[in-house]
Structure of Small CPxCG-related zinc finger protein:
Amino acid sequence: MSNRVVEGRMVTPERLAELVEGDRPMEAEAIEDAEMDCPECGSNVLSVGYMPSVTEFVTAYKCQECSWSDTDR
Ligand SMILES: [Zn+2]
């Protein structure tokens, strides 16, 4: 089960990538713990790898509690 609670809602890997990217990815890997604290609120940060297009692979980082997010672009 790789669904996780983010900002109070259960999200799939695809939905988590969509929250960060703004568009639904072609593919997303399992959600993992990023082993870092949110720079905004200090809560746990999750990471998810996804493909926004066939030629690109991005890792997104998203706080579980607030709206902070980032990518490795
Ligand atoms: Zn946060």
